[in-house]
Write a structure and sequence with these properties.
By secondary structure, the protein is of the alpha+beta class. The chain has helices spanning 86-99, 127-140, 167-172, 198-226, 242-253, 256-261, 266-288, 297-332, and strands at residues 4-10, 13-19, 28-34, 37-49, 58-63, 109-119, 150-157, 160-163, 175-181, 186-193, 348-352, 361-366, 369-374.
Amino acid sequence: MKPRSFTMELGGRELKIETGKLAKQASGAVTVQYGDTVILATVGMSKDAREGIDFLPLMVEYDEKMYASGKIKGSRFVKREGRPSDEAQLTARLIDRPLRPLFDERLQNEIQVVITTLSYDGENDPDIPAMIGAATAILISDIPFEAPLSGVRVGMVDGEFVLNPTVEARNRSSLDLIVAGTAGHIVMVEAGANEVPEKDILSAMEFGHKSIKKICKLQEEIVVAVGSKKFEIESEKSVEDTSDIKQKVLKFLGNRLDDLLSINTKLERMKATDELQNEVREALMKDFDDKFSKDSISAVEEKEKEKSRLNEEVKEVFHEALSEKVRADILQKEKRIGGRKPDEIRPLSINVGLFPRTHGTGLFTRGETQVLTVA
């Protein structure tokens, strides 16, 4: 592939995405430059799927390099770079969160996304270019991915929204909001702020999403120009069609999810959830037993294999139905788990001086969550 370069204006600076120059053996690789900050994002996928897992084996690494800012490690004798810093690990998680839900849920191949800082100008943080680069590398690779994804940072300086504020501007900002999403939806939000009105937070999200749409459009152009044909996921045919299983599960559940979600105590609710899921599984397994003959060893083995697969599908459909019910209750009935309203907080309490020999103790309780601090 010949090197290709794509540019756009973003927050008063040029965003430049290049591919075909570095990491040519990766499934997808791009460099992203914003100001004088440059990152390299690469992605690779294993040839074979991992059988028997119910999660996406995705690993995101964000690698800070001291040479990126022209520095050498301070130790006189040890010049190697050490383990990832806390900030690097948090940045990797920041990138992972919006990426993960956009992969095909059937995908079980191991995927590695590695982002390396190549240059840091001290003004433009690498995290936003890293997020854009990671998504773009996946988009141009052969890995199935739902839609273009990007992210921006929104600050508020002197009452005005600022797109991707510099480090200096962030120090003066009353809001530090990171928004990630597709052209149609916001997927992830992370924020820190002083006391900022809720309407300003919502306006900041809308402000950031306008720029996200523009970046997604650029990513679409890149995919058309240099994108690879997507990998086709081989899905084994199940005894029961998933839609048929879902109908049977929903019919069995009826209104029982209402009773389940009205339980206030977490442990009791978890126990009731497990019991209800087991009831659903046993009910569907009764209908399954007559589908296979036991006349031969091969038939028995085939039955056990299909039974295991059906068990996993029932588990998946049950949790999907539970999630849809929770979401529907919040949006339509304004009722959260345990019967709380959307704006209702759990009971709060603070206790101090719990232990006689410590300098100080504090116990903060919010509902069933507790934090004990000892000094």
